[in-house]
Specification:
Helix content: 40-55%
Distance between the termini: 87 Å
Largest sheet: 2 strands, parallel
Number of helices: 11
Structural class: mainly alpha
Strand content: 5-15%
Shape: globular
Radius of gyration: 30 Å
Order of helices and strands: HHEEHEEHHHHHHHH
Number of strands: 4
Length: 264
């Protein structure tokens, strides 16, 4: 006949004690577990920097993850709405080299104040065909824009900022490549971007060190130009090279770890 210990719980059948009556470790474990449960129930948890956090019977909860690299939810873009409505003079053309945009009008005759901000707004898209049309459309318009690009720069800042703040790796890589193309697309564009560094560079400061440490391995994303850390460095160097004499000091103010590629 098994002896029922004093800490017997009525939800445990007596046959369980009979099966473990000859095992002293069972009683030690049971006593330890009950003690820990009582100790845990004794404490109450609260948030930090509150009045309760200073009381002896409360314990402060551990802080959660900052989520700085967590992808943000992006709203539905105006680019998608305009595309589905058929407002863009574009079509998809297939050839032996891959897909490209067939423009129904000459790119040079487009109203850049209307179309270029819309295509930049589509950089947040990740689904086909919106992603392809937005990305390729931006590059086509920057390639043929010339002097029409400079007056539109203020309208491009918010779409660029929204795309970078999405934290989506695909979107960020695409946007950084577009920025590198933007600064060389026309004269004075790089200098015109300097006053807007406070909107563009904070997210680049976060992602500047976002590299994969593979040791002796090979990171193939570098060959595909999909490494965020390398793209950020290339973009900053393009900003400094084409941003005039005030570019470096403004970049250094927002990104203290950046080293000049011109002065050094």
């Amino acid at each position: 006949m098994a002896v029922v210990p004093s800490f017997h719980r009525y939800d445990i059948p007596l046959s369980y004690y009979e099966a473990n009556s000859n095992n002293p470790e069972f009683y030690c474990y049971k006593y330890k577990k009950d003690t820990e449960d009582k100790e845990r129930r004794k404490w109450k948890f609260t948030e930090g920097f509150t009045t309760q956090s200073r009381l002896p019977m409360f314990k402060v909860k551990r802080p959660g993850a900052s989520g700085v690299f967590t992808e943000r939810e992006v709203r539905a873009t105006h680019f998608r709405k305009f595309y589905e409505r058929g407002d863009f003079p574009i079509a998809l053309e297939h050839d032996t080299k891959g897909n490209k945009i067939a423009w129904k009008v000459e790119i040079e005759k487009l109203d850049y104040h209307h179309y270029l901000p819309l295509f930049f707004d589509g950089l947040c898209e990740t689904r086909h065909p919106y992603e392809f049309f937005a990305r390729q459309g931006v590059h086509d318009m920057l390639e043929h824009g010339g002097s029409k690009i400079l007056p539109v720069i203020p309208q491009l800042i918010i779409p660029i900022k929204v795309a970078l703040n999405s934290r989506n790796k695909q979107v960020v890589c695409t946007t950084l490549k577009v920025l590198q193309h933007l600064v060389v697309s026309a004269d004075m564009v790089g200098e015109a971007l300097v006053p807007y560094y406070r909107q563009i560079l904070p997210i680049l400061n976060i992602m500047k060190s976002l590299n994969l440490n593979t040791g002796d391995g090979i990171d193939y994303s570098q060959q595909k130009r999909e490494n965020v850390g390398d793209l950020v460095q290339e973009t900053l160097e393009a900003f400094e090279t084409h941003g005039g004499e005030d570019a470096f000091i403004n970049i250094k103010y927002m990104i203290p770890t950046y080293e000049s590629c011109v002065l050094n």
